Amino acid sequence: MKYCELKRPELEKELADVRKQYDEKKAAGLKLDMSRGRPSPVQSDLSEELLKTVGENEDCFSEEGIDCRNYGFLKGLTELRKIFAPILGVDFEQVVACGNSTLNLMYDCVSDAYHYGVPGGKAPWGKQKVKFLCPVPGYDRHFGITQALGAEMITVPMLPTGPDMDRVEELVKDESVKGIWCVPKYSNPDGFIYSDETVKRLANMKCAAGDFRIFWDNAYAVHDLYPDPPKLLNIMEEARLSRKEDRVFIFFSTSKITFAGGGVAFFAGSEASVKNFLSHAAVRTIGYDKVNQLRHARFFGSTEAVYEQMKKHAEILRPKFELVCDTLERELAPTGTARWNRPLGGYFVGLNVKEGTASRTYTLAKEAGVTLTKVGATYPLGIDPFDSSIRIAPSAVTLPELKQAIEILCVCAKLAVLEKMTENKI
Ligand SMILES: Cc1ncc(COP(=O)(O)O)c(C=O)c1O
Q: Which residue's CA lies nearest to atom 14 of ligand 1?
């Protein structure tokens, strides 16, 4: 029954029923943390063999004879770059294999642009006014980087086809707009995939700033839940066609393929971008962790093996995503108070509850033992002007735990709406 169609007495009865359900669930004393998109221990176990590939009886030499225990070779192991280059959609010469975190690389790239500028620019960003486009809802840690470095963040609505491109094209006419955060496949948190048209427009659009950069965080490039996954258009190829390949910085890591704390992160870009990246990286390090790169190269051996590993992850994750979406469908769809996308991959489900009720939903869930990602986190500065976006991260908990947690979340979302509609808050 749609809540907006209920008469006052019916609303009050529903409120009493839902409050009773909430009290019962709260009394169960659950304690679950669903605040971050961590892989579960069972997923980490899938890569256990990786730890043995550079073991007691194995040498530490790469295929080219590099002693991975020693300094140097900043661009990373060639065999590993060759395995991941097709996934990044570029030639291996355009790929740098780095340390364990793309977030770290993204921070470095923005920070380097602030200190030294990027090719095509008139001055370091730090000496100019800098505005950054932030598709919302989006990834909190992206916004954290641009906040920490002092950029003004301009929100752009995220549509099922990607950022609202009419708005983006309008905004990039301003020379102080220097960049945009993009999670093009299975966006965080909604799980949307940029359409071909969006990718083409991003690659081709006319920007007033010669030093405008697209931060293409393709974190979930291979994180498909189902066979025959949707294809993302290759942005680098599109940019090359219009001679704008310097515009695109690509980031990707194995954090959610092997180990979230011990994977390998990659940077890819045009020849000029890679040269520029390496010139700054060389100041920071004599070489990234090649022993871990060697482990990864030996563990996978081929690009195909990466996709095989992802099928195993999908077996673990798919039931969790389906449980979340089925429960939302059963519990919230009939009330007509919430919207969400059923993702085909990635790590999150973005739930948009009725405007003005997300914070209350979060608090109710917390009091009932379920910790969600902080409300507002999906917006710059942690402020969701609609108080509507809730990020569900189903990966870390077990299926039985997830079932309880999502049922509690649905009860909380309903209770928050009913309280608001009747102004009858405890
Ligand atoms: C979109 C996105 N980018 C980057 C990261 C972090 O990546 P890394 O582990 O490579 O730093 C995450 C983690 O949740 C993410 O969702």
A: 37
Per-residue model confidence as pLDDT tens digits over 132-189: 999 999 999 999 999 999 999 999 999 999 999 999 999 999 999 999 999 999 999 9
Is the shortest distance between the CB of 253 and ligand 1 below 6 Å? yes
Show Cβ contacts of residue 281 under 8 Å, excluding neighbours closer than 6 positions: 74, 96, 98, 108
Q: Is 265 in the pocket of ligand 1 (CB under 6 A)?
A: yes
Residue 391 lies in a domain: yes
Task: Looking at the CA of residue 265, tell me the nearest atom of ligand 1.
Answer: 10
- Domain end, chosen from 301, 328, 351, is at 301
The whole-angstrom separation of Cα 99 and Cα 182 is 21
CATH for 364 = 3.90.1150.10
Residue 205 lies in a domain: yes
What secondary structure does DSSP assign to 289-333, as a single string?
A: -HHHHHHHHHHH-SHHHHHHHHHHHHHHHHHHHHHHHHHHHHHTG
Ligand 1 centroid distance, CA of 102 (Å):
7
Per-residue pLDDT for 220 more than 80?
A: yes
Q: Total domain count for the chain?
A: 2
Q: How confident is the model over 3-46, as pLDDT tens digits? A: 999 999 999 999 999 999 999 999 988 898 888 889 999 999 99
Query: Positive or negative, the Cα torsion across 348, 354, 355, 357?
Result: negative
Whether residue 327 is contained in a domain is answered as yes
Do both 386 and 415 map to the same domain? yes
* Residue 278: count of CB within 10 angstroms of its CB: 13
CA of 256 to the centre of ligand 1 (A): 9
The pLDDT of residue 194 is above 70: yes
Q: Is 367 a domain residue? A: yes
Q: Per-residue pLDDT tens for 229-258?
A: 999 999 999 999 999 999 999 999 999 999
Q: Is 105 in the pocket of ligand 1 (CB under 6 A)?
A: no
Rounded to two decimals, what is the model's pTM? 0.97
